[in-house]
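Appendix C: a fully annotated inverse folding record. The material below is reproduced so that readers can follow the format used throughout the book. The structure is listed first as tokens, followed by the designed sequence.
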């Protein structure tokens, strides 16, 4: 089979408001057909999947959770670590089997892996039955590609994009909480990270259209928005705006709860801290990735801060934002990380007593500077470091959860618990997961809950009363 060349379309000039009303442009050509969508990776991808669902449903597709019944299978992929790629390739094996039995089923690869030309070439060579590969920058072209490519294999991946597409429509998974993209891409080029290559340069959305989106969500009854960006607090640099101003404007919409992820310590300003502490509807929760507690490693990672600077910022947040909870990301086994470097990371965890942390073993990503660095630490040692780190991290998250025991906290109830049918679940303002005994008519409300048990990763509680604000 002929493999199409990887056409790199360089669309550099800024085009805004490019989004076309799909309903007008495309009829419901796929009415009666079903789609299966699998999402890997971060919140960006989860939110992009809500856009994919909307594109497909506008064309007439209906969602199915039974892969065997699907006429189109979309994999929204992640590339952050090797195991993310492994999960996708594992799943593709299953698709191969399906395609043998149903040759008409369409297989679409979207997401960050699509933006890695070498990986895609390798995958396309191995899995020649893939129908469409679409990049993160041109997701909005999916309907067009689907219609046009029904009898051919298509790869449509922009390698770079300066575009900021406004007015994207989403089929949101929840009617209570919503993701709101405020910016795209990342320019930081941490030496280990693939994201700047798969998501392009930092581009901010217009402040007015973000505010309008939040107001619309509020009018529809949404209780919480999470402002999304790989570096959410770098918002506005390219358009003469600032994250602190945006946050303040979002707070003034009076939507009940506002969150934001992910913040880069280097971009965090005093103004941002002031705004967070000033408005009650900005939640006292900050995800602030540390990555390493060694200045030597931070430098090699190109993180742009020292451990001292990180701790200064951390302290300021704790002092100025009442009751703030701070979580982090940490990588162990970065090339050249010595036992002393690792111990410095443990020391930082002890000093900061994080409310929680996502921890990872360094995974080399082809094409990034770190992948070329010498790395003499055996995997077994890296695994031991991860284990040790996790023990410490869990100790502190347990400690912080225990502080809430017998206290009454405000929880936004999201749904029935999947694990325990008699319980509901929701999150505190500080982003702690609580399983709550209570009637299901409190779903979608912010209620008072008394904490009865604290575990490492969640809390148990009992419904006390509905908040007056509701
Ligand atoms: N933009 C965010 C993080 C996005 S990726 C930030 O800079 O803080 C989420 C996390 O994945 C990172 O914080 C990092 O801890 C981890 N990560 C990224 N690349 C990795 C790699 N090559 N190996 C292991 N972990 C990685
Ligand atoms: Fe990756 Fe660094 Fe950008 Fe975060 S800031 S997405 S870790 S390059
Ligand atoms: Fe993965 Fe892309 Fe997110 S690499 S973590 S899906 S930005």
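Designed amino acids, in order:
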């Amino acid at each position: 089979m002929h493999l199409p060349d990887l056409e790199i379309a360089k669309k550099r000039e800024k085009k805004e408001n490019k989004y076309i009303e799909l309903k007008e442009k495309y009829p419901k050509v796929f009415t009666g057909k079903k789609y299966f969508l699998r999402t890997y990776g971060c919140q960006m991808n989860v939110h992009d999947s809500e856009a994919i669902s909307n594109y497909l449903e506008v064309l007439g597709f209906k969602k199915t959770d039974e892969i065997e019944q699907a006429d189109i299978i979309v994999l929204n992929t992640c590339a952050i670590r090797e195991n993310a790629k492994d999960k996708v390739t594992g799943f593709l094996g299953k698709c191969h089997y399906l395609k043998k039995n149903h040759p008409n089923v369409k297989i679409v690869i979207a997401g960050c892996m699509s933006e890695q030309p070498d990986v895609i070439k390798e995958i396309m060579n191995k899995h020649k039955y893939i129908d469409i590969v679409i990049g993160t920058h041109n997701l909005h072209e999916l309907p067009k590609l689907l219609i046009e490519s029904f009898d051919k294999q298509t790869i449509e991946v922009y390698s770079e994009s300066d575009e900021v597409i406004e007015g994207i429509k989403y089929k949101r998974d929840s009617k209570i909480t919503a993701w709101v993209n405020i910016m795209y891409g990342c320019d930081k080029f941490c030496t280990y990270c693939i994201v700047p290559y798969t998501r392009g340069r930092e581009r901010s959305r217009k402040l007015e259209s973000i505010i309008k989106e939040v107001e619309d969500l509020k009018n529809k009854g949404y209780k919480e928005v999470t402002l999304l960006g790989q570096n959410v607090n770098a918002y506005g640099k390219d358009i003469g705006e600032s994250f602190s101003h945006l946050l303040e404007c979002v707070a003034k919409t009076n939507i009940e709860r506002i969150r934001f992820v992910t913040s880069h310590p280097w971009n965090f300003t005093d103004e941002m801290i002031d705004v967070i502490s000033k408005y009650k509807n900005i939640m006292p929760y900050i995800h602030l990735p540390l990555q390493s507690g060694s200045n030597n490693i931070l430098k090699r990672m190109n993180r742009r801060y020292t451990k001292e600077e990180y701790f200064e910022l951390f302290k300021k947040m704790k002092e100025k934002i009442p009751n703030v909870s701070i979580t982090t990301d940490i990588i162990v086994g970065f090339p050249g990380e010595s036992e002393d470097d690792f111990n410095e990371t443990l020391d930082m965890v002890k000093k900061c007593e994080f409310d929680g942390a996502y921890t990872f073993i360094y995974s080399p990503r082809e094409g990034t500077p770190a992948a070329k660095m010498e790395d003499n630490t055996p995997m077994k040692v890296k695994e031991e470091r991860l284990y040790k780190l996790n023990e410490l991290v869990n100790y502190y998250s347990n400690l912080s959860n225990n502080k809430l025991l017998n206290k009454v906290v405000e929880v936004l109830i999201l749904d029935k618990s999947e694990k325990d049918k008699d319980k509901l679940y929701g999150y505190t303002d500080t982003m702690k997961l609580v399983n709550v005994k209570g009637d299901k008519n409190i779903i979608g409300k912010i209620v008072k809950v008394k904490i009865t048990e604290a575990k490492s990763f969640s809390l148990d509680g009992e419904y006390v009363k509905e908040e007056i604000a509701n």
